Amino acid sequence: MGDESTYLAAGEIAAAVRGGERSAVEVVEEHLAVIAGREPEVHAFNAVGDAQARMAAELIDRRVAAGEDPGPLAGVPVALKDNLCTAGVPTTCSSRILEGWLPPYDATVVTRLGLAGAIAMGKTNLDEFAMGSSTENSAFGPTRNPHDLTRVPGGSSGGSAAAVAAGFAPLALGSDTGGSIRQPAALCGVVGVKPTYGRVSRYGLIAFASSLDQIGPLAPTVADAALLLEVIAGHDPLDSTSIPEPSPSLVAGLDAGVEGLRIGVVAELMGEGVAPDVRRRVEAAAEVLAGAGAKVEEAEVPAVAYGLSAYYLIAPAEASSNLARYDGVRYGLRVDAPTTATMNVATRTAGFGAEVKRRIMLGTYALSAGYYDAYYGKAQQVRTLIVRDFAAAYESFDLLVSPTSPTTAFPLGAKAADPLTMYLSDVCTIPSNLAGDPAVSVPFGVGDDGLPVGVQILAPALAEATMLQAAAVLEDAMAGEAGTP
Fold first, then answer.
1. Active-site residue (options: 156, 175, 201, 425)
2. Could you give the number of structural domains in the chain?
């Protein structure tokens, strides 16, 4: 792992920079040194923006010297998933089809980070167009898990999770369509939050499945994740699905605990397919929450059993529509051919990877005449059942608990040849995306192989504050366990 000095909390770094006790330049140089040491073996980044980061840090230091307050993330390095538009910086989605494209604008979250004083360190690797659970589906090669370089970091935000786990940056942003923040957070031993759909603006996020995509934070601690979420959340008129209310306060109430809360362990996500060592960690987490004053019982959300099937029709259908814009005409790769139609085909053949092609074909088939009602229509009906079953569960419970990933990090290549086995990696995380509800993965010890296990806490829409309070209780319990001789 990196130098322990790089594990200073983001809030502590910002306070030191704002108070003039540390320079932003010094903070950036420390993190660039850690990146230089381990990035060649981890490959968390598609591009490290060292020159831009140094310039941004100098600007922060000048503002502090002039008596200004640069913001709540002053001088804090942040890694950005490479599907977030950044003006003038290559944004590839880890796909050849976006080769050479420079966005003319910043995503709203990137703008908000800048206004808060954060410093972008670079663009992180991902499964191409965020389609995958291992960050092996990248045109630029796989990212490796910093805890064990023979293992995957999870996906699709594997580069962002690995960057935080390796100490390359105290904070990172990912996107979560079916678990793409939470699952890599679990496998890399960091905190990952999928906010309520609409809580964070999607403007400038390159779309995979528009009704499911949501941007969220990855961080070493619950407090840092809460701080980053506070900065990026809130209404944005540029996103028609943005919730029209201000960002909630999250950090202030983190110590409120779970006394009196009703918490349910989702029975359907604790059975077949979940590794015994992962199940034991979730059971231990439930005991911790009960010991902290929560009333913990088994909960039933029957329709989640169909979540995977519904998701792999809805998400590819939306992807086949969203990815139709990559045609060799407007931006990115172009493979010349005699006619427009053959140029479109040649460009897409060369530009898209195997998994993206697989999902485009699946989605186009599900939307085609004669099959629409049987596949896409039926999947949307199942989605409604999932929404209803979660709503029913939240009448009895304030929060729900489950594994984040059914297993710890698996070896590179172990599931690459079997898409269905790979898709099962997201069985616990997909239901929250279909429902639009928030969820967080918090590290809770290790499995039998010594690799991190994440416990998932699920909450009803807009209940991020309560969800993060419970996550903080689990985090404190692990800190206490680590401190026990």
1. 156
2. 1
Per annotation, catalytic residue among 23, 81, 242, 441? 81
> What are the φ and ψ backbone dihedral angles of 199, each rounded to 5 degrees?
-70, -35
What b-and-e string marks burial along 75-105, b requiring 16 or more CB atoms within 10 Å of the CB?
A: bbbbbbbbbbbbeebbbbbbbbbbeebebee
To the query of whether residue 180 is one of the catalytic residues in this protein, the response is: yes
- Whether 366 is covered by a domain: the verdict is no
Does residue 341 belong to any structural domain of this protein?
A: no
Full domain range(s) for residue 27: 4-308+377-482
CA gyration radius for the chain? 21
Cis peptide before 156 (omega within 30 of 0): yes
CATH code, domain carrying 411: 3.90.1300.10
**Each residue of 288-324: pLDDT tens digit?**
999 999 999 999 999 999 999 999 999 999 999 999 9
Residue 275 lies in a domain: yes
* Active-site residue identified among 134, 180, 201, 432: 180
| Residue 367 resides in a domain | no
What is the pTM for the complete model shown?
0.97
Backbone phi, psi, residue 318, to 5°: -65, -35
Tell me the CA distances in angstroms from 436 to 179, 194, 383, one per residue in order: 12, 9, 10
Q: Which of 2-11, 245-254, 340-349, 379-388 has the lowest mean pLDDT?
A: 2-11
Q: Look at residue 484 in the predicted model and tell me its pLDDT.
A: 45
